[in-house]
Amino acid sequence: MNPEKMVEALHGRITKARGSAGFSITEAAEKLGFKNYQTLSSIEKGARNITANELIEMARLYGRNLDYFFEPTVIPEPIPLWRKIETRDVSKEQRLFLSFLERYSTLEKLLALKQSWKEIRSPFGRDDFTSDGFAVADKLGAHVHKILDLGSRPACNLLNVLETKSRFKILHVPLEEGVSGASIVDDTLGVGMLINAKDAPWRRSFDLAHELFHIVTWHVFSPQEVGNGTKKTRPEQYADAFAASLLLPEAHLMEALTAVSINSEIKKVDIIELAKEFGVSTEAILWRLVTLNKIKRGQVKKNLDDPAFRSLDSSIRRGLHEEFPLSQFPARYTSLACRCLMEGKISRGTFAEYLEIERSEVDDRLAEMGFAEESYEKIAVA
Questions:
Q1: Could you tell me the pTM of the whole model?
Q2: CATH numeric code, 126-247
Q3: Is 160 helix (H, G, I), strand (E, B) or coil?
């Protein structure tokens, strides 16, 4: 490619990067520190040259590697499955999510690690769901629970098992109103999940299980069948049924229910205690008990519409947010970044960028992860 074509391609790539990251030209110019949007407009049109520092700042803002701006061709990006309201644009969240997956994959490549994940495929096909979808979703939940060996209280183990045993790449970020989460399966990036860090611990567990259904059935339902995340399509409904089955295994739930109920009477406080014990919402417990024919649908609505029940639920659960501290990045991701830095495969600046910290915090983060230089050298040569 001749120099003129290269410059033209660069400016076009800058424009595309801004658009796909969800920034208006005015918004981007302000965040990049330009006095007005005309400066950025001139750069995108090729009327003004861009400095190296400006390009670096753009790469950071738009969630891109510098290579993106110079590669001769750009491979189309994979598209996650989203859960959101219809009017909500998720361009910023999507670029954030994909950027995390790209960085995670880069760390694995730099350390020559196998970029593999434990593939969990549904043993049930499209025709099975057509005949009796909810029953199949329930069976699939029990099947995956057994494969992952999640134990009697799955919500307590699910995140750790998915991250460490199955090598799923899970990002927790505070999502703005209108966005619930996302999932993706990609040959290059692996399996990814985006979970709302603002949600209560029990809500996050259910979201993990819900997104897991989409991962497991990635080759069963087309994106068109799942939908754009704005409506409760059949696959979305099946995902909820799957999540309830996975997190509330019938045998263990019935055993716990028998232990708390007297004369087969299920009290409201028992529902709340069961929800706490299994790490799910009271709503999830109630609907699961409907599926298992232990209570009637009308009773669920009556409980959920009862202000006293809601107040008691909130009171009993108070403080549980603090009991379950949440890290934005998986421990494995942070550990791989530490290894890459200690082995000279990435710079301190890249390390700080990957973990979204200041450069002055790098040594503290290394120490937190047990990567003091002298101790790491001993481990590395062992």
A1: 0.89
A2: 1.10.10.2910
A3: helix
Class of the 3-69 domain? mainly alpha
pLDDT tens for 54-77 read 999 999 999 998 888 888 777 889
pLDDT tens column, 254-312: 999 988 877 777 888 889 999 999 999 999 999 999 999 989 999 898 989 999 998 88
Under 8 Å between Cβ of 155 and 56: no
In the block, tokens 């400016």 appear at 11
- Report phi then psi at 279, rounded to 5: 70, 35
At which residue do the structure tokens 């409506």 appear? 231
Radius of gyration of the chain (CA): 24
Q: Which long-range contacts (CB under 8 A, 24 or more apart) does 94-98 make?
A: 94/22, 94/182, 95/20, 95/21, 95/22, 95/62, 95/63, 96/63, 96/171, 96/173, 97/171, 97/182, 97/184, 97/192, 97/194, 98/63, 98/189
